[in-house]
Design a protein that fits this description.
20 strands, dioxygenase, Jelly Rolls, dioxygenase activity, Pirin, Pirin_N_dom, 239 residues, Quercetin 2,3-dioxygenase
């Protein structure tokens, strides 16, 4: 089967704006519903958020979702009804399993600095599991893909996922650096910052995403300092 590339440009994302939040949505989210843009592979949310100082998301519920948060700048404080508490900062991997139901809040406690992060949701293999929380600091992140989170058997990941067909990787590239994406039925490449060239698809700039189907390990080459997040997925929702 021939590879399929779909580029989603940053400017085409729906945006939620409040006095304290700017949230850019790669997929349908909240009031921004697009029936043909609900997921890619197993990924259902890819929100690019900036939260102002001394503000954030008050306590709210989630259920049956694996929620991974990756901070780019600043710090985000997590607290939940299972008794978990953590401060997430750049280079720290964090996952919350909502399971059969959990309440949590996410706040920027800084007096002066906004927090910029990407929050990503994938569907778990099983519904109704016990809620869980995991965070782990990653060491050096450079021009090789580092696995942030994975449920794929045999993967060495910073944190685990309750989905055996999904993994999230990160790299930080300098101009001229290149990485090869994993071979997978579905790939989601997101550029929270930087610029690169994706073989077979062309240039991606800050905020752009590429949705790949049946791609055979395409190569990505940075043209300026770049951070990229790649979801590797071996299944699709509904089959």
């Amino acid at each position: 089967m021939a590879a399929h590339f779909e580029i989603r440009r940053a400017v085409d994302r729906a945006v939620t704006t409040t006095p304290w939040l700017t949230s850019r949505h790669s997929f349908s989210f909240g009031d921004h519903y697009e029936p043909d843009n609900t997921h890619h592979g197993l990924l259902v949310v890819n929100n690019d958020d900036v939260v102002a100082p001394q503000s954030g998301f008050d306590t709210h519920p989630h259920r049956d979702m694996e929620i991974v948060t990756w901070v780019l700048e600043g710090e985000l404080t997590h607290q939940d009804s299972a008794g978990n508490h953590g401060v997430i900062y750049p280079g720290l991997a964090q996952r919350m399993s909502a399971g059969n139901g959990i309440l949590h809040s996410e706040k920027n406690d800084s007096l002066t600095q906004p927090v910029h992060f990407v929050q990503m949701w994938v569907i778990p293999d099983e519904t109704g599991i016990s809620p869980g929380y995991q965070q782990h600091e990653i060491g050096h992140i450079g021009a090789d893909l580092v696995t942030i989170a994975s449920g794929i058997p045999g993967h060495d990941a910073a944190i685990s996922l309750h989905n055996r067909d999904a993994a999230l990787h990160v790299a930080r590239l300098q101009p001229g650096d290149a990485v090869t994406a994993p071979n997978a039925a579905y790939l989601h490449v997101f550029l929270p910052r930087g610029r690169l060239t994706l073989d077979g698809a062309g240039e991606l700039t800050e905020g752009d995403a590429a949705r790949l189907t049946d791609a055979d390990g395409p190569r990505l080459t940075a043209t300026e300092p770049t951070e990229l997040l790649i979801w590797e997925m071996h299944a699709n929702l509904g089959g």
